[in-house]
Automatic annotation (TrEMBL):
Segments passing through the bilayer: 26-45, 51-72, 110-130, 150-170
Membrane topology, as annotated: Multi-pass membrane protein
Domain Cytochrome b561 bacterial/Ni-hydrogenase, first and last residues per copy: 22-183
Stated name of the protein: Cytochrome b
SUPFAM superfamilies tied to this protein: Transmembrane di-heme cytochromes
Keyword Transmembrane: yes
Broad class of where this protein is predominantly found: membrane
InterPro entries reported for this sequence: Cyt_b561_bac/Ni-Hgenase (IPR011577), Di-haem_cyt_TM (IPR016174), Hydrogenase_cytochrome (IPR051542)
GO MF, any single term: heme binding
Entry keywords, A to Z: Cell membrane, Membrane, Transmembrane, Transmembrane helix
One Gene Ontology term, aspect cellular component: plasma membrane
Compartment list: Cell membrane
BP-aspect Gene Ontology terms: respiratory electron transport chain
Length: 187
């Protein structure tokens, strides 16, 4: 492994038959809570009804837990482990464009930016959804439109995130979706 790859958090070639715990239960529970909540609220539950609101509050609660866990959690859950500097992001994107991006155990810099963006959108959807229940904003169409637009932004980015996970799984010969179920990846 080159020095730049080591500095970027890349990992060495895998040892046969071994794996390592990367995604702890809090990270995985957050991920699948958000996936389930977004599917329910975007496609199944009627907008603005009680079930829609409770699912939104559950996702907001999971987001609060994940934000706290980003400071006190396990290694790969901590923001300090994966939030990239601009230089590190540029370097990773340049390597990605050449098809030579390093494989990483935790979030790569592009995935980290996607995760942070999705978390910001989740927070914005939660706040605007809650605001629509307040007397001060009751029936405000601009707020409902903003809430819907932000939710649709989550959908678009989530689809891009899923596609990127599939492409990265193929490129690095590992099942990233399954690793978010088991919490384990090859070293």
């Amino acid at each position: 492994m080159t020095r730049n790859a080591a500095e970027a958090g890349a990992v060495a070639a895998p040892a046969a038959g071994m794996d390592v715990r990367v995604w702890d239960p809090v990270v995985r529970l957050f991920h699948w809570t958000v996936v389930t909540g977004c599917v329910l609220n975007l496609f199944i539950l009627p907008e603005g009804k009680l079930a829609h609101r409770y699912v939104g509050y559950a996702v907001a609660g999971a987001l609060v837990v994940r934000l706290i866990w980003g400071f006190i959690g396990t290694r790969y859950a901590r923001f300090s482990d994966f939030v990239p500097t601009p230089a590190r992001l540029r370097s990773y994107l340049a390597a990605l464009a050449k098809g030579r991006e390093p494989r990483m155990l935790g979030h790569n810099p592009a995935a980290a930016v996607m995760m942070l963006t999705l978390m910001a959108l989740l927070a914005s959807v939660a706040v605007t959804g809650w605001m629509t229940t307040l007397d001060a904003f009751w029936g405000e169409e601009w707020l409902e439109d903003l809430h819907g637009t932000l939710a649709n932004g989550i959908l678009v980015l989530a689809l891009l995130h899923a596609a990127a996970a599939l492409v990265e799984s193929w490129r690095h010969r590992e099942n990233l979706v399954w690793s978010m179920v088991t919490g384990r990846k090859r070293p």
